[in-house]
Amino acid sequence: MRLYELTAHELKEKIERREVGVEEAVRALLDRIAEVDEAVRAYVTVAREQALAKARAADERLARGEPARPLEGVPVALKDNMCTRGIETTCSSRILKGFVPPYDATVVELLERAGAIIIGKTNMDEFAMGSSTENSGFFPTRNPWDLGRVPGGSSGGSAAAVAADEAVAALGSDTGGSVRQPAALCGVVGLKPTDGLVSRYGLIAFASSLDQIGPITKDVRDCALMLGVIAGHDPRDSTSVPRKRCDHLKGLVPDVRGMRIGVPKEYFGEGMAPGVRAAVGAALKTLQDMGAILADVSLPHSEYALATYYIVAPAEASSNLARYDGVRYGYRAPGCPDSVTMMTQTRSEGFGAEVKRRIMLGTYTLSAGYYEAYYLKALKVRTLITRDFDRAFEKCDCLVSPTSPTVAFRFGEKMDDPLAMYLSDIYTVTANLAGIPAVSVPCGFGEDGMPVGLQILGRHYDEATVLRVAYAFEQATDFHKAKPVLRDARAGGAAMGGTAARGAAASGDGSGEAGGGPTRKPAGGEADA
Amino acid sequence: MKITIADVDHVAMLARLRFDEDEKAGMAEQLSRIVEYVEKLNELDTGDVSPMAHAVPLRNVLRDDEVRPSLDPEEALRNAPDREGDFFRVPRILESE
Amino acid sequence: MPERAKVSTAWAAEAAGRPGPAQDGGTGAVACASEFEPVIGLEVHVELSTKSKLFCGCQAAFNAPPNSHTCPVCLGLPGVLPVLNRKAVEFGIKTALALNCEVASFSKFDRKNYFYPDLPKNYQISQYDLPLGTSGYVDVSVDGGMRRVRIKRVHLEEDAGKSVHESGTITGSSFSLEDYNRTGVPLLEIVSEPDLRSPEEAYAYLSMLRSILRYLDVSDCKMEEGSLRCDANISVRPKGSSVLGTPIELKNLNSFRAVEKALAYEFRRQAEILARGERITRETRHWDESRQVTVPMRRKEEADDYRYFPEPDLVPLEIEEAWVNEVRSTLPELPGVRRERFMRDYGLPAYDAAILTESKDLADYFEAAVAAYGGDAKAVSNWVMGELARLMNATGTDIRDVRVAPTALAAMLKMIDDGTISGKIAKTVFEEMFATGKEPRQVVAEKGLVQIVDEGELARIVDEVIAENRDVADEVRAGKDRAITFLVGQVMKKTRGRANPRAVNRLLRERLSSG
Known about the structure:
The structure holds three protein chains of three kinds.
Chain A: H1 8-16, H2 22-40, E1 43-46, H3 48-63, E2 75-79, H4 106-113, E3 117-122, H5 156-163, E4 169-174, H6 180-186, E5 189-192, E6 212-217, H7 220-230, E7 260-264, H8 274-289, E8 293-297, H9 305-320, H10 339-350, H11 353-366, H12 372-395, E9 398-402, H13 418-422, H14 429-434, E10 438-445, E11 451-458, H15 463-476, H16 493-507
Parallel strand pairs in A: 2-3, 2-4, 7-8, 7-9
Antiparallel strand pairs in A: 1-3, 4-6, 5-6, 5-10, 9-11, 10-11
Chain B: H1 5-14, H2 21-38, E1 62-63, H3 73-76, E2 83-84, E3 87-91
Antiparallel strand pairs in B: 2-3
Chain C: H1 9-16, H2 27-33, E1 36-47, E2 84-85, H3 86-98, E3 102-103, E4 106-107, E5 110-113, E6 123-126, E7 133-142, E8 145-158, E9 162-165, E10 175-179, E11 186-192, H4 199-216, E12 228-238, E13 248-253, H5 256-275, E14 284-288, E15 293-296, E16 309-310, E17 317-318, H6 321-328, H7 335-346, H8 350-358, H9 360-373, H10 377-395, H11 406-417, H12 423-436, H13 440-447, H14 455-468, H15 470-477, H16 484-494, H17 501-514
Parallel strand pairs in C: 13-14
Antiparallel strand pairs in C: 1-11, 1-12, 3-7, 4-17, 5-6, 5-16, 7-8, 8-11, 9-10, 12-13, 14-15
Helix pairs in contact in C: 2-5, 4-5, 7-8, 9-10, 9-11, 11-12, 14-16, 14-17, 16-17
């Protein structure tokens, strides 16, 4: 097995036993990126020099006999909406091109304190608005399982990087499914923790009351390991919950006997692809065979979740994104005679179509006379949706559903129809609205052999149950061990290139643009895909 | 609710965005569809339901009144698109702003 | 919305283009104004004197080098979050209590969305529908009577930065410079009901408010430094009417005098318009200090669409009774109560009591002096409000920096009482005490200012003066009584003021009537 193929816990153990040096591990990942990222395009920035410097420092530490930390030497990728001191942070938006934060997000501090090495920043839908990473202001990321398809989004870069072994683990952010959906579409594990469990300080806000940072990993153990590092109270985030840190690894026992697992009927209705239905159906059977008790439950307000989400999220976003005005940082439109023109021009040129659409939607629903009819109404429905879950959790330990109604779709398939794209989030947005934890774990393959994810949702702060069920399921199956063909195409540049070209052609962005090394910073000139 | 070009103009002005005529028509049409979709919520009676602004109900998160170090002005201004001395510089502000 | 400094040239130009109404307050305007009354409400913003800003740990400092008190949070960098300053909340509660408000048991913060280069996030964190305090009042003494001014609301919000306008040439190439030091400094907005009925009342209310805030020690309330800012709403209606007129908002009121003058101007302007049978258009007007006129500000239609919604990055406040009581226990005796007590306990006239209690430090000074003196409190009041106030004004000295200790003033008063110095000499003594901080006894000794109490010595000097001014003495003897003043003056001159004028007068009369 190659170094870059290892999981975080495997790699950390090897480093701890001094079988592998940190620099060696980091170089292995950097080489892997150099090899395949031309095809996948998971990264917008590779922090090669910083990563190597930190790796050498870690090796020295270990050489001095200091004990290995929980993520010692593990190369980790960050979605490019988490601020990294001294490393460009763009949210994949042209409006933030060149922005170098003077501070680190709390999760960055925590990862580094735990010994992780940040190797780069991953591509995303601009400001996390999207479900395909096609809305990146720079370029789309491709699904390692089929370069002609999207990796999902908005944390598509992080999910693709982990799936393509370009990162041992990654962080994404999840506002309506942005960790879980790309994890499902790329065949990896993705967790959205309970609201307030992980600090949002330094996470560039999309919709403040829905955003959560979560790990994207190769297996459930890594997910628990990462969560243990990034979870915890942060006095810099007023919405961070003061709770004791806990070791999420301890609860990982492959046993679901007697557990009551709810199957919400609203999540198994129309609109689900047959391949997804089959894979998830088989997964339920597996859980049942393992001794879990499946129970039919109802979440009657589910059909209102997406509408609620598409009021709350754009409204908050319209305000959160007001600060991008060309005054203090980022892009400024040149040659404007006055400030109003400058701000208007900057924003019109700097934001992509989807971001502008959501700012318009959010501004509209908050504007005079509409606040109560839309935003306030949505906050009330949010209460109803949360009560549905409370009721379901009275009877069940957790709930299961598909993560996404379809497997990864082809580039451009849903770009002309925002509503169709929004439907990708139909099973995931409820967890954000209710603030509950939810994980997506690989559960097989659907249409065209593309990965399918099983979503497991739990009570507030009950990550333990969610992870335990995911772990037990994973241990009973082999889906997480499957790797995209890309891995074998390592030496076969022609084959890989061919796939990449197919992807680019399908995305309609011109395959000629796909050149350039992974360390190359985003060109920024590409039109919104 | 049907969103008109005039609505788009007004909202764009509030949001400091500008669209050309073609974009406006497309925006009005797309926003109309989305708004029509989200108006689905009107089916629900929420008369006595309290709004939920946060998923986790926290109260009184306060910090002590202690001074912490500020950024060095040089660092504060590092990302500035334009500056003059230690000020951020912007095109003139019209009185009507 | 925080008040902002703006270039006034544009407004001045606009105002110049049209004749300002009733600029001179001519008799015509006065005549028509007498049929109308103004209805005034004030919106006051005070910067709270916390050590750090409202939502971050940057120091809240005035006059620091540009952008030297900023951090990612108050610069509104991507990814940052606010954390509320407990002290600011307590100052808010304290003020709400002092203004007799109901303190909200549940309060929250909201975002007020508008674009402006001095507002880093392009929204201001403020309080919209659940302010800290509501339904309070302040009693203000006006024209010898009392007026109860109702307080509509008291809420917390963050200040904006400062735009420095580089006024450009006519060719139009000009820029604005942004300094974000002030961004995020806690502001308390105090909104009155439209209960004020004259510019003078507005002035009195503002003075009372400042006095209260200073007693509370929550703000230094320096209007010239912008730590107290005031916008006014004024409408005009026929006297006796109970219908409210169209309100006009006045901005750029940079001093108490400006508030009073702008309101007086605006009252006359609107009264004139109404007298002509025309209507007032609702607008915001700017006080042009140099021209002493108000001019309309052009505003966009968006101005009122702030798209308020609950700030998702902050959690609500639950202000329990125990917390309120804890804050209540820190309230000092407030100026209104103290004024009453000064009248009751010290027998002071209302005027004296009001002036002495306006500043807590002055009132403390007075009380310390009275305690040390033990005599007539009115005498202390006369000296504090007279000589002390005069010298403080002349030298620009704050009461806290006055070098005359209250006990020294008391000692001096005792020296007057026991005849050691005359009241006239005491003024000289006090000036010296004020300048040097010396004790009165030392000043009197050093300058030889002890009153001549020896009747024989005084009689000798009186005789000398009569001898030197025979013709004047004859005039007095002849019945020209007023001429005696001259002789008294001569005696005082010879004694360098150390004689008791009453004694001199008596001695002169004895001699001139018998001789």
